[in-house]
Amino acid sequence: MVPRYARPAMTAIWEPEARYRIWFEIEAHAAVKMGELGTVPEAAGKALWDWWATNPKVDVEAIDAKEAVLKHDVIAFLDWVAEQVGPEARFMHQGMTSSDILDTTLNVQLVRAADILLADLDDLLAAIKRRAMEHKYTPSIGRSHGIHAEPVTFGLKLAEAYAEFSRAKKRLIAAREEVATCAISGAVGTFANVDPSVEVYVADKMGLEIEPVSTQVIPRDRHAMFFATLGVIASSIERVAVEVRHLQRTEVLEAEEYFSPGQKGSSAMPHKRNPILTENLTGQARIIRSYAMPAMENVALWHERDISHSSVERFIGPDATITLDFALARLTGVIDKLLVYPERMQKNLDRMGGLVHSQRVLLALTQAGLSRDTSYRLVQRNAMKVWESDGQLSLMELLKADEEVAAALTAEQIEEKFNLDYHFKHVDTIFDRVFAD
Amino acid sequence: MVPRYARPAMTAIWEPEARYRIWFEIEAHAAVKMGELGTVPEAAGKALWDWWATNPKVDVEAIDAKEAVLKHDVIAFLDWVAEQVGPEARFMHQGMTSSDILDTTLNVQLVRAADILLADLDDLLAAIKRRAMEHKYTPSIGRSHGIHAEPVTFGLKLAEAYAEFSRAKKRLIAAREEVATCAISGAVGTFANVDPSVEVYVADKMGLEIEPVSTQVIPRDRHAMFFATLGVIASSIERVAVEVRHLQRTEVLEAEEYFSPGQKGSSAMPHKRNPILTENLTGQARIIRSYAMPAMENVALWHERDISHSSVERFIGPDATITLDFALARLTGVIDKLLVYPERMQKNLDRMGGLVHSQRVLLALTQAGLSRDTSYRLVQRNAMKVWESDGQLSLMELLKADEEVAAALTAEQIEEKFNLDYHFKHVDTIFDRVFAD
Amino acid sequence: MVPRYARPAMTAIWEPEARYRIWFEIEAHAAVKMGELGTVPEAAGKALWDWWATNPKVDVEAIDAKEAVLKHDVIAFLDWVAEQVGPEARFMHQGMTSSDILDTTLNVQLVRAADILLADLDDLLAAIKRRAMEHKYTPSIGRSHGIHAEPVTFGLKLAEAYAEFSRAKKRLIAAREEVATCAISGAVGTFANVDPSVEVYVADKMGLEIEPVSTQVIPRDRHAMFFATLGVIASSIERVAVEVRHLQRTEVLEAEEYFSPGQKGSSAMPHKRNPILTENLTGQARIIRSYAMPAMENVALWHERDISHSSVERFIGPDATITLDFALARLTGVIDKLLVYPERMQKNLDRMGGLVHSQRVLLALTQAGLSRDTSYRLVQRNAMKVWESDGQLSLMELLKADEEVAAALTAEQIEEKFNLDYHFKHVDTIFDRVFAD
Amino acid sequence: MVPRYARPAMTAIWEPEARYRIWFEIEAHAAVKMGELGTVPEAAGKALWDWWATNPKVDVEAIDAKEAVLKHDVIAFLDWVAEQVGPEARFMHQGMTSSDILDTTLNVQLVRAADILLADLDDLLAAIKRRAMEHKYTPSIGRSHGIHAEPVTFGLKLAEAYAEFSRAKKRLIAAREEVATCAISGAVGTFANVDPSVEVYVADKMGLEIEPVSTQVIPRDRHAMFFATLGVIASSIERVAVEVRHLQRTEVLEAEEYFSPGQKGSSAMPHKRNPILTENLTGQARIIRSYAMPAMENVALWHERDISHSSVERFIGPDATITLDFALARLTGVIDKLLVYPERMQKNLDRMGGLVHSQRVLLALTQAGLSRDTSYRLVQRNAMKVWESDGQLSLMELLKADEEVAAALTAEQIEEKFNLDYHFKHVDTIFDRVFAD
């Protein structure tokens, strides 16, 4: 975790105190159910929750000190709780194994992380939608291979982003479901010393589903899917980030990351406004998606479990979620405050002297009865003049002045072929598709 | 694609002829709809389908020869079709762009590949289920960290695999849905020269959904998710493969890949039966999951599209699906014919002289009123004797002979603690959870 | 392997015949040495080489047919050779294990592949050097963050590429050395049935070093390093490819991939020349570097060996080397024939009305005795006018006309600050550093 | 960075104070050289170093507070230094760019990290060597595919590890050299405002080489190679870790991670000693090698630079080096204190009743004049009896008692084939090869 790419709410999930609090809840819920079953005295669960109701401070330092001696984190924790609660607490954890606590806790953390990320996505979607509506009909040149192709609108670019992050949201909901499971199944997952109904009870209380079959641990294909999904979402962030970086290039300058008027250095070199937020996002995407690989390698644990997944998860659990949370929020800010320059978009659109409309003219000539070869030759000879003038000449004017062309098409007909509205007649349809929900 | 890791049905999807056949269908469906709309003569679509009804051979060589001249695959194809069908065919592709064909075709291929993979998963699940039922109550030692922990059954191991591949199936269904889209939206996705209803029509005919917003290309986050999902599934294959490899180790030998009696070399060194199929699967899993990275890097195409994704997809499209198909089928064969040795499982279970039951005895002593420290000391002194005998002594017998223990627990009580059934009382519950569907 | 990204010389290395020929050489060299040692009759080696001297056809089909029956590739091969050579051939392979042949062969293939790649790099370096010299002093705007920064020369960009691929070459030489080893050490690497001097002899004949200690297999950290190195080289290809793609953007257009005058479609839309070769290279880089991951996972084989590395290597051995060979050659072609537009570079340099020189003016004003704040204010007020004019006004002219500036700096002094030569005074030094070798 | 996987010396390299101290040194060295050149007053460098000689505290908090206001880390630092040193300090950084400091500093950090890692490798090599010598002739069964093959010695396993980490060291030295460069070349690498001799001087003082050509930044192929190399080294760690995990399995138990006698839980379940250190290392290897991917993606920065590499490096710079340092030290500890059980190794060797020697007997029978088929049949019928007895019968005894075998081989001859020394005759040769240096 890199502090400058971390926001407090997400970071809090991964702090020791949060972990211990989840541990407590799992143990206390289990104790209540075991009390019901008669496995342990009913007083045990009550004592635990009564103490918890006093909103006690979880003394991380004290627990860590115990761990240093006992060399076992869960035992250290249980010991400390027992000291606080009294003798009834000694019935905690009966028949359970450390992984019951650790794995269920990891899943609670991932679910909470997913909830924050889902809220982040909602914020991002809202920002994209607002800007998309604002620029629904702002003309902009569409580019394939970085080369001018045909007109689009800036709103369409944002509609694509909206659709993409809508998919991201759907995927994240599925990924959240993947890890929203609870296992309280004992040393090798057989429930030898703990009744399955305890698992059912704890799962319900913690907002999780039961893990149908566990093997001391919750199977790691679930987590592999979770982190792979974060990697795909990060890649979508990169896509938008790269788009903004391109748009902000000196020669393009159709949009810029927000730059506060007073920001130092902006005036003596007013052109030097660097898209550092989106470059930063590009790098973060690289990191987040790289975590998919060790997450997948974690799946093939040996037999009923080995602990090789654990060191991996100590990195990627916090790092992937914290960084993605930060990245989504940063992207939301970028979109929300993006400086958009419609005039420059129009200027770029016009920069090729109308060459982007040459295909329509070609088609019109063919439809007017000229052979394809002739049509091509007519367009070509005018297009080349425009090209050689570096866009200073206008294809439309040259065509109007070309006698052979004029014989086939009227000036109005030619002008019509240069009309941007032609390209935008289905923008509304696309917006309906994308923003219907 | 490595021929020895390829099966014909999946390979066929990726062959040029299959691709051209899909191209034709897309173009012909589009022509029919355009005919309805009046964009092109109605005769066009009819002529195309009439010709298709003659079940013509797609002459890959002829088309490739054209491409070599024209330097454009789609134009070469259209040309060839036009030669076969006649003048009406020249109305094909009107207002469309190459990517409309290429991207929709890729998605058709991926959907078909997913359908094969789903069938593979069904076969695998059936094989696992059959063997799980067969070994539902076959005792086996559960191992954590490779060390004997507590008893499980071999059926439980398979139940876990069943649950894991059931999740794999669910994920693959979602991944299939991700790529089951069709785009017929023109040069930059604006439908400038093709009506959106054509896309709707073609999508329906090809069994796809419309792509709500495309940008010449279908967005690659869909494909990233698809290939990431295959990577996770491959990792689950690795998990089972590694389990089999472990079970087949000389010292463990609880199961073996099927080995035909006459297989050369099996008799002079009868112990030397190598788990080469599952080792092979392990390597295939590494390759398949590695494809997730370039698939994710493919997402951030520039502006409305660049073609950098294409070279990646020429590798991973066929390689990931063909290899995963092969791997799933191979794993199914391994499971289906796996030689399982219950006697050896029992022998391994017993190998530690009953030490795996020490926890239960410890608990029983505590419940019989002894302090935890005393209980521990009593178990310990007998456990150490067993350990030092390398499992030749029996913990149960030693405990029965230990006067202090005997004072607390009767022989029957002690024996009961060594009863395997205690561990298997919830196997049925777990099987109900896993195999309910 | 994707045929369209494959060149014959590299592909040939990976064809069955090439593999069998290497097998033969290893076996025959080993037989000669064993003959010297008296382990086998001296006639054996002689018979093998005599037959080989007749330049016999290696009948891949016949060997494969044997393998289909025998289920063992090396035995099938030995069998076939024995049939051709006669009874003496039965002494081949004495005391050796299949991996002795297979692993040494893989390394011979990788070494040969590396030799082709090294030649590719030499060609690439030559092309880059030629173009760098040609454009040593061609002014071009340097960009950080995609934004105009200060002037560079196009030659400097190429010098950087030259230095980078010089490093690539050095790395590849080291990577080649990593895999240039030979193991003839028997079933578990103990030389139990084969004398170490055989390994020494064969290594020498095959142009390899002996593997100091093998464990049936040659250790895979060597191959991991090899493939990781290819991944880094591919990433450098991507860097140059991305640079070309940027330079070819419609708004930048400082360079273009070569486009033959007659290439279809170039004239009606003369601006639509897509950098598809470099986009293609970008995708290939993604694939090639992805192979580093499974190569690294291959290192941790179990005990003296398992065969999980093998399926991985069947993919990445050919695919990484064939694709990198293709990519290097393609990049060489791109550089060699790159259309470079110095006028456009100059135009882009001038496009900001001289704002890129504002820093030098600022410094000059300070050195002329004005306070930093005053200097800043003076530059700023003129810079903003240029900016607002979108580069139509000239910063130099405005500064000359600004009375306060003129009071501090003469017109000549101001003009000197806009002199490009100032920036290029150390180009020669850099070229000396880079091209010294 | 995960604190529990971090050691102080390596962590210190990445702390803000260390970074600021390197910044100071670079700036102060540059100021001295610029003083010599007359670019700045000679007093500047002197003032800086005089202050430094007072061993001043670097007030990280104060600098960070300035950065919060100035939004620029290097300017904040320069400001703070200027406050401490006085007016002469204002000549720092003349003609330089932030990246000159930041990139050179990163490389100093990586070089220092590499030096620690090299020392770690030396410690590891020493530990491996000591244990290899100790167990040079400790017999152990060699396993291929996890199945007993032929005898090796435990020392040979360690010799392989020694050879592998010797290669790791050589690679790390090369990787260190890759990043041991210094760039002081200004805004776009042209030395426009800073003389190249400053770079030469600073490089020399900082123990670095000059970067022949930089583009504001030091090219990232160097760092990609560095991190890829760490990934390969981590994979070698995994290999040894997996070997130990295998050896510690209950059924194998040829070696164990050190377990202090008093460690809790060891006695009631004396068999439950888990190889958690090596499992932990396995996971760390997954993480460390995953960093190679984003490092490679960092190479293709846009034009003269973009800052997308930076966020990646904030993660992988510290995380890869700190975790690898920890992992190497942990592995050294594991090897150093590894509990090795030669008796168990012998017992496992014998476990198959001598089947591992069947190949030698087969060969001996052939050499004694029997046909290969007959020899095979004779060995087979005895081998099968051993196999069916689960190793309770002895192949040697059965062969001696087999009349047909006895007709071909004397009892002494048969016994000789079961002599382990036969397998170890070249151990000395291998050790000479490996430990020669």
Automatic annotation (TrEMBL), chains A, B, C, D:
UniProt xrefs under SUPFAM superfamilies: L-aspartase-like (SSF48557)
Domain Adenylosuccinate lyase C-terminal: 353-435
Cited PROSITE patterns: FUMARATE_LYASES
One cellular component (GO) term of this entry: cytosol
Keyword Lyase assigned: yes
GO BP terms: 'de novo' AMP biosynthetic process
UniProtKB keywords: Lyase, Purine biosynthesis
InterPro entries attached to this UniProt entry: AdenyloSucc_lyase_C (IPR019468), Fumarase/histidase_N (IPR024083), Fumarate_lyase_CS (IPR020557), Fumarate_lyase_fam (IPR000362), Fumarate_lyase_N (IPR022761), L-Aspartase-like (IPR008948), Pur_lyase (IPR004769)
GO MF annotation: an example: (S)-2-(5-amino-1-(5-phospho-D-ribosyl)imidazole-4-carboxamido) succinate lyase (fumarate-forming) activity
Listed EC numbers: 4.3.2.2
Domain of life the protein comes from: Bacteria
Reactions catalysed according to its record: N(6)-(1,2-dicarboxyethyl)-AMP = fumarate + AMP; (2S)-2-[5-amino-1-(5-phospho-beta-D-ribosyl)imidazole-4-carboxamido]succinate = 5-amino-1-(5-phospho-beta-D-ribosyl)imidazole-4-carboxamide + fumarate
Pfam families in UniProt: ADSL_C (PF10397), Lyase_1 (PF00206)
Pathways involved: Purine metabolism; AMP biosynthesis via de novo pathway; AMP from IMP: step 2/2; Purine metabolism; IMP biosynthesis via de novo pathway; 5-amino-1-(5-phospho-D-ribosyl)imidazole-4-carboxamide from 5-amino-1-(5-phospho-D-ribosyl)imidazole-4-carboxylate: step 2/2
SMART domains assigned: ADSL_C
UniProt KW Lyase keyword: yes
Family: Belongs to the lyase 1 family. Adenylosuccinate lyase subfamily.
The name this protein goes by in its record: Adenylosuccinate lyase
